[in-house]
Structures are given as structure tokens and as C-alpha cells.
Design goal:
The chain is of the alpha+beta class. It contains 2 helices and 6 strands. The protein has one domain.
């Protein structure tokens, strides 16, 4: 019983710092409580252009498999080949406090 309690107390020391987070603001972006509509995983580049228009900037492709990044104001879209791999809303980024 005692060893279980010690383990629980010790393990809580490692978890507690991870639970603290700070919201950071990114210059040029306004935080909002509204949910950002972004491309869904798995749709192709043409569908993204139809739904969201041309990106402000394009980077890549880089590496193997080729990864491409498209910049849309407050969010970024990452593609593997021509399919959406991930979309990131820059207004809701939360980083661990240092």
C-alpha cells in the first residue's frame, strides 16, 4: 500500500508541469472564441482551393514524402503529396509555460 502511494506522489510531480499552459499571441493575428473553419484531413489541394481560395503563400514541397505548406491568414494547411495532412489554427495555439 505504501509503495503505491509513493509511486502516485512521485508520478504527480512529472504530470503537474505539463498541465500548466500559457496562451501566446502571434503578431498580426487576433485571438477569437469562434471556431476556425479549416480544411479537413484527407481532402486534396483542388478541393482546398475551391473551398478556401488561393493561399497567401506556398512553401515546399520538401522531403520524402513531399510536404507542402499553404498559408491562409490565421491558419496553415500541410499537405503530404496533394492530400491535407493537418491544418493548424494559429489563434488557438497553446504552448507549455517555461
Amino acid at each position: 500500500m505504501r509503495s503505491g502511494l509513493k509511486f502516485l506522489l512521485l508520478s504527480s510531480l512529472f504530470v503537474t508541469p505539463a498541465l500548466q499552459a500559457e496562451s501566446l499571441t502571434i503578431p498580426g493575428h487576433t485571438p477569437t472564441d469562434q471556431v476556425q473553419v479549416m480544411p479537413r484531413r484527407g481532402i486534396d489541394m483542388n478541393a482546398v482551393i475551391v473551398e478556401f481560395g488561393q493561399p497567401e503563400e506556398r512553401y515546399g514541397p520538401v522531403g520524402e514524402p513531399p510536404i507542402t505548406e499553404w498559408v491562409y491568414g490565421s491558419f496553415r494547411v500541410y499537405f503530404e503529396h496533394d492530400l491535407v495532412l493537418h491544418s493548424i489554427d494559429l489563434n488557438t495555439l497553446v504552448f507549455p509555460q517555461q
